[in-house]
Amino acid sequence: MDQHIEKTVGTDVATTEDAKTMIDTGIRLSPEEDRRILRKLDLWASSILTLGHSLVWGAILMITAVCHDAAGLLTTRFFLGVAESAIAPGLTILISMFYKKSEQPLRHAAWFLGNTCAGVFGGLLNYGIGHVGSIAPWKKPPFLILGSITVAWSCANFFLLPDEPSNAHFFNKTDREKVIIRVQENLTGTKSNELKWYQVRGALLDISTWFLVLIQLSSSTPNGGFRSIILHGIGFSTFNTLLLQCVPYLVQFVLVVLCTGGSSYLKNTRTYWMMLTFAITLVGAALVRQLPEPDKWGRYVGTCLMGANSAAFPLLMSLMSGNVGGFTKKTTVNAIRFIAYCAGNIIGPQLFFQREAPSYSFGFAALIFCQTTCFFPCLGMRFYLMWVNNMRDRHDDSTEMAGEENMQVQAVMAMMDKTDKEIGSFRYVY
C-alpha cells in the first residue's frame, strides 16, 4: 500500500518513511503525560483512558481517507501515534493485576497477537481492494473499514473490559476475592492513586530498568514498518508485495505462541527465548544483505525471519510486569521502556537510504549490529537478577523468621504499594 500512497499523494520513499516515523514520534511525545494521568487517577480511569485512546485511534484512521497530500498524511500519522501511546502500557498494567507471574507471558501474547492477525488480515484486505479499479486502492476502504471496526470494538469494550479484579462483571463476589488473593503472590502490589517520587527515583536508579531499555531500543529497529519498501526493492510487484507481507506475520504468530508458551512452562527461560528470536532475526537480516540480488526468494525468506524479534515483545512485557513492584515505579518503568520502543521504531526507517535501493547495505548492516547488541543486556539482566535472587535466598536462610510467617508479612507489604526492592521475599523472573 505504501507504493500507492507515494503515487497518489505525491510522496517519495523518504516521505513515506517519515510518515511511519511520525507515528512513533507521536507515541514518544505523549506517553509520560498519559502515565502521569494513569498514576493520579483511580485505576478505573486507566481502563477508560486505554479504551478512549483506542477509539480516537480508529477515528483518526478513518480521517486518513480524506488526506490528499504529504502534509495531511504526516499529520494524521503523528496523531495516530499520540492515540496509540496509552494502549500497550494500559494493557500491560491490566495483565499484571489479573494474572500470576507464570501466567503473564501467554496473556501478553494474547493481546499482542492482534498485531500479527491484523497484519495478515490487512494484507489480504488491501490486496482485494487493490483490484478494484474504480477507486484509489489505498485511499478510502482500508482506512474506513479498519477504523470503523476499531471504533466499534472500543465502544463494546467500555462495557466488556473490567477496570480491576474487584469489579470484574463476569466474576461473582467469591471469584473476585479469589483473583485478588491468587495474584498477591506476585508481590507487585495493587493500584495507588498517590504519585510516590521515591519510586520514580528508584525506577531511574534500578539497573534492571536500563537493561529493559537497552533491549527494547536495540530490538525495535527492525520492526518491519519498512518491509513493503524492501520487498518492492527486491523485485516484487505492488500487488504481490501486499500478499507476501502476510507470511512474515504468520511466522511472527508461530514464534509468539512458541516462545511465550515455552517460557510459561519452562521456569526462568524468558531471556533464553528472547535471545532465540534475536538470533533468528540476525539470520534473516544477513540473508537479505548477503544473498545476490537475483535471488529474490532467498532474500524474501530473510525478510520473513527478520520479524522474529517481535516475539520478544510480550516476553519483555512480562519481564517488566512481573519484576517491578510499586504502582508508581511500574508505570515509570513502563513509560521509559515504551519511549525506547518508539525511539527504535523512529531510528529503523532512517537507516534505509533511497540511494542504496534495492540492496540497502548500510541499513541491514545497522540492523545486524542492533540485533547483536540485544544479546548483551539480555544476558546481563539474566545474570543480575539471578545474583539478586541468590543474595536474597542467603539472607532468608540467615533470618530467624519462619518462611510462612515471613511470606505473610511480605504479602502485606506488597498490598501497601511497596517496591520490589523493599520486599525481601520478592523473587525476580528471568
TrEMBL record:
Keywords carried by this UniProt record: Membrane, Transmembrane, Transmembrane helix, Transport
Locations listed in the record: Membrane
Membrane topology recorded in Swiss-Prot or TrEMBL: Multi-pass membrane protein
Membrane-spanning ranges: 43-66, 78-99, 111-129, 141-161, 198-217, 229-251, 271-288, 300-320, 362-385
InterPro entries: MFS, MFS_trans_sf
Record flagged with keyword Transmembrane: yes
Keyword Membrane: yes
Any single GO CC term annotated in Swiss-Prot or TrEMBL for this entry: membrane
Main location: membrane
GO molecular function: transmembrane transporter activity
Protein name per UniProt: Major facilitator superfamily transporter
